[in-house]
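Task card 7
Instruction: Convert sequence to structure tokens.
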Amino acid sequence: MNDVAKKLRLASHKTGENCRCKRLQRLESISAEARKVILQTLNSLLSHNEQNSYLCGLISTHPIPRRRPRKNAEESNFHDKGYRYRVRMLRKALCKISVCYKAFMKSLKFTGGSPRDARGRPFNNSNKLSDTVIANVCKHTGFFKSRKSHYSLHKTQKLYLSEDLNILKAHNLYKEKYPEFPLLYESYRNIFNRKFNISFGYPRVETCSTCDEFAAKIKNLKNSTQENREDIMTTINTLTVK
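Output:
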């Protein structure tokens, strides 16, 4: 989620309806303008941590003075503490007005439910690539002619493709072969790098010292032959002039 969406979400609290509490009847006494100021104060906070700290300052606990259980002691579920809820507003001075739980929730438009931790839970991701697309990428990559490293065979199982090929060209070839299964370049590249151990171009270690020595001798022989040919041509030209 980007920063703009986060800010909009933090500032999305709205005032609810009256709680119609018969005991306190405090929310009805708070004017619409005062409720608007309460919401503006909450929405102006820049993070969830700041909003949570602000809300914690409006909630306090107290011991339960008297219990009136309607069930037997064995069946009753006694609470250890009671809670008081307040809203902070400015009249002649900054003060806290006691409200009931429903009024507290409605004034700030909260659901009252605890947030659920969705980490590690399966979810329906509409952007998830289908198995068919992944299989097509794997099948298409298998069409490329590749070879293993000759001198590093026991060190790595990496495959090498021609140096004339790269991921962008491979992606363009994929789009030509599977136009009915469109795939973005970044997604193609992620599948390519995750599913395969492939590099483009052959490694420098593909030649041994003996091969390098023979290559150098052949190159020197060609150079010597060229020099001898030039000497012969120079001699012929000299004799012709005489």
